């Protein structure tokens, strides 16, 4: 599938994030259940899946036949980010046949001394045909990533970096709208989208597609929101 075909397929849709990392209830080092989450997402009408780890990229593609936005979460000393931070993770995503590779493009500290745009240029030099989704926290990061070769940008990291830690609660509609106005590439809304109404609003303000994970595929997060809401209501 070409880049434009992938973009056309995801336009106006919900991309379901099916991820489980060590320490989460649905993570099992010996076997994965994420392909079952992806099966359910496909039956609901999802046209694309976002997932982490080589195992889940491969199993979800085999199970669903859907295109996958792949990433590898791995922590390194000296790096404050963990989403596809080095060429090792890019290589793994490419070998697993991820259709799109998601890379942290924030201003986080990098142990290799590179900036995110510098790293993106290295990735593009090694893999000229790679399709990169830049996971960003700010408009400035998104612009810099696009100029460095990112094919699409997401608001994924907003609220998860030191500079945006104050961004909590509702999705950051303003940031997504700013990205849409500033960039000619597809903008993917991601982060804190917990209701169908919020997802629909993101599309209405110009998001190309919306990634939803915690509201669909993370039982602990879903249950915690309910528990907290009930507890607060008793106060």
Supply the key terms.
10 helices, eight-stranded parallel β-barrel, 8 strands, alpha/beta, 42% helix, 235 residues
Largest sheet: 8 strands, parallel, barrel
What strand line-up does the widest sheet have? 1-2-3-4-5-6-7-8
The beta-strand count equals 8
| Unreliable stretches | none
Summed up, the helix count is: 10
What letter string, H or E per element, gives the SSE order?
Answer: HEHEHEHEHEHEHEHEHH
In a few lines, what is going on in this structure?
It is built from ten helices and eight strands.
3D structure, described in words:
With 235 residues, the protein is of the alpha/beta class. It is 42% helix and 14% strand. It is built from ten helices and eight strands. An eight-stranded parallel β-barrel has the order 1-2-3-4-5-6-7-8, surrounded by six helices. Helix 5 (116-126) links the parallel strand 4 (100-104) and strand 5 (132-135). Helix 2 packs parallel to helix 3. The longest helix has 16 residues, at 219-234. The model has no long low-confidence stretch (mean pLDDT 96).
Topology:
Layout: H1 3-10, E1 14-17, H2 34-44, E2 49-52, H3 54-64, E3 68-71, H4 87-95, E4 100-104, H5 116-126, E5 132-135, H6 139-147, E6 152-154, H7 173-182, E7 187-190, H8 196-204, E8 209-212, H9 214-217, H10 219-234
Parallel strand pairs: 1-2, 1-8, 2-3, 3-4, 4-5, 5-6, 6-7, 7-8
